[in-house]
């Protein structure tokens, strides 16, 4: 009898513990704004493979039409995280953005890539000299990768306004579409857009890193106030993104990776996906492994901004725009 009583007591106790234990916390929704393109591959993988969910996150992705839309809405708190050029974060933090809106606490918390920047021109333009008197489109002349374009052109003997003009045409997708319609003679494209362009007879005149050397392109950025209040979410985002990059670099995952790419870019064909795989996952200059930012590359960004940014400022300290504490926490498992 005592044995039965003890069993009943144990059963009741177990039921009470089960009833009173807290249910698992629901995933935290974070809103991420990105430029559209294949360089979002790690985000797609993190969604498809449950890496964000594993870190307690429900990531909602919104494509941006331009850097102005992306940065102003990030500053206003309509988005939590932006996958954007670190140059954009610096510009709006320093009051050098395309519009007079200040983001004094914008910062980067991880790296993504070197920008994958390629100067691509219409079929009729085969040399830099052919660009004299032509239009080269940009997102915004004060931000994004416009300064990279100006530097490439200057090193090849051409100066803005004197030799060519720079109409604003929006983000990379908009610039690609305008280039395909030959509205402008050339623009900077991000991989793998140049793959599609070259397949149609357009010309690649330069790769940015061949001209500039190390350069930090896309980063994960946010407002410091939001990030501090949501530290676990930022750390989880870094972990998921880093794990997605690791997964992509594993050759055993190539076929599934290609399938994920095509699922998210239905207008791309299998050959374009294979080419994108080689470019974006190059062991030399592909996605930055472990999502580690290149601080030497940030110095290049600052040098260009010091040269071309308005109002003119001397910007030399890359540590002002990057807080390693989030990344360091993410790498501690």
CATH class of the largest domain reads: Alpha Beta
Bin the helical content: 40-55%
* Beta strands, count: 10
Q: Which value, in Å, is the CA radius of gyration?
A: 23 Å
Low-pLDDT parts are: 11-20
Strand order of the largest sheet: 2-1-3-10-4
Please give the structural blueprint.
Elements: H1 2-20, E1 28-34, H2 41-48, H3 51-54, E2 57-63, H4 67-75, E3 81-85, H5 86-93, E4 106-111, E5 117-121, E6 134-137, H6 146-155, E7 164-165, H7 172-180, E8 186-190, H8 193-199, E9 203-207, H9 208-212, E10 218-223, H10 224-229, H11 231-249, H12 254-264, H13 270-280, H14 295-308, H15 324-331
Parallel strand pairs: 1-2, 1-3, 6-7, 6-8
Antiparallel strand pairs: 3-10, 4-10, 5-8, 5-9
Give an overview in words.
The chain is α/β, with parallel strands linked by helices and 333 residues long. The protein folds into 2 domains: 204 residues, D-Maltodextrin-Binding Protein, domain 2; 96 residues, Periplasmic binding protein-like II (D-Maltodextrin-Binding Protein, domain 2), CATH 3.40.190.10. It is 44% helix and 16% strand. The protein is built from 15 helices and 10 strands. The strands form 2 sheets. The chain has a 5-stranded mixed β-sheet with strand order 2-1-3-10-4, sandwiched between helices. Strands 7-6-8-5-9 form a 5-stranded mixed β-sheet, with helices on both faces.
């Amino acid at each position: 009898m005592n044995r039965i009583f003890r069993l009943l007591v144990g059963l009741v106790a177990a039921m009470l513990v089960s009833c009173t234990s807290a249910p698992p916390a629901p995933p935290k929704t974070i809103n991420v704004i990105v430029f559209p393109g294949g360089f979002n591959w790690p985000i797609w993988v993190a969604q498809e493979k449950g890496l964000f969910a594993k870190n307690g996150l429900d990531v909602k992705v919104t494509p941006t039409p331009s850097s102005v839309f992306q940065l102003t809405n990030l500053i206003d708190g309509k988005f939590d995280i932006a996958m954007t050029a670190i140059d954009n974060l610096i510009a709006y933090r320093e009051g050098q953005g395309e519009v007079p809106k200040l983001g004094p606490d914008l910062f980067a918390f991880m790296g993504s890539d070197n920008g994958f920047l390629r100067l691509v021109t219409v079929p009729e333009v085969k040399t830099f000299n052919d660009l004299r008197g032509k239009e080269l489109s940009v997102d915004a002349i004060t931000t994004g990768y416009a300064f990279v374009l100006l530097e490439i052109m200057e090193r090849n003997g051409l100066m803005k306004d004197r030799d060519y003009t720079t109409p604003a045409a929006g983000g990379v997708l908009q610039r690609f579409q305008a280039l395909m319609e030959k509205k402008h003679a050339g623009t900077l494209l991000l991989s793998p857009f140049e793959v599609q362009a070259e397949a149609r007879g357009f010309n690649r005149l330069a790769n940015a890193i061949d001209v500039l050397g190390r350069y930090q392109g896309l980063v994960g950025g946010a407002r410091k106030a939001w990030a501090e209040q949501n530290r676990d979410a930022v750390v989880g985002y870094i972990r998921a993104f880093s794990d997605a990059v690791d997964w992509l670099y594993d050759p055993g995952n190539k076929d599934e990776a290609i399938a994920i790419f095509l699922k998210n870019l239905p207008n791309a064909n299998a050959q374009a996906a294979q080419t994108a795989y080689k470019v974006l996952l190059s062991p030399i200059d592909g996605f930055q492994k472990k999502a580690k930012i290149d601080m030497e590359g940030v110095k290049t960004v600052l040098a260009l901004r010091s040269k071309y940014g308005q109002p003119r400022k001397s910007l030399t300290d890359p540590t002002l725009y990057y807080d390693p504490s989030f990344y360091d926490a993410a790498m501690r498992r």
